[in-house]
Amino acid sequence: PPQDDFTVVAPTQPLQAAVGQNVVLPCRLSPALDAQSLEIRWIRHSFTKTVHHYRNGRDLVVEQLRDYVGRTELVKEGLSSGNLDLRLLGVRPSDDGEYICTVQEGSSYGEASVDLEVAGAFFHNPRPWMAALGVFLTLSIGFMVLSALLLWKRRHWSRQLGESSWSLPPTK
């Protein structure tokens, strides 16, 4: 039976997980409709590739990203009350990022995003690293230029001193 229109809701604050942990990415329908007959797809925002696909009461693994095979499960107990939570097992640094929960039934469609921050994911926010690298490279280049300039000056002065010492009249 067709459902009324729905909205997909997810937390706005990022979720935090440590490498190796299991984590649940929360998502739900509003109003809390029975979602067992809906098509639910979790995708990675940056790749627009399928992390988990559920349709007609079954999990479909055909389109699933290889990195997620055997590591995801839709929490089925909550489907009848509109929960679309996805359990992700054995979190990896590469899991860091945005996930989008999409729901479709006929012409009704909704989506919401969940941001997962993995502690220990080296480049979750690359800006500080890039800034530090930029400062380091700038200082290194500046130091090399200054060293070359001082070396050149030293040679120049020693050459001038050498020439001027030859031009001194002999002492008696």
From TrEMBL:
Keyword Transmembrane assigned: yes
Domain Ig-like: 2-117
Biological process per Gene Ontology, one example term: T cell receptor signaling pathway
InterPro entries, per database record: Ig-like_dom, Ig-like_dom_sf, Ig-like_fold, Ig_sub, Ig_sub2, Ig_V-set, IgSF_BTN/MOG
Compartment(s) of residence: Membrane
Record keywords, A-Z: Immunoglobulin domain, Membrane, Transmembrane, Transmembrane helix
Pfam family of the protein (one): V-set
One Gene Ontology MF term: signaling receptor binding
Transmembrane segments: 129-152
Gene Ontology terms: cellular component: external side of plasma membrane
Designated name of the protein: MOG protein
Gene (name only): Mog
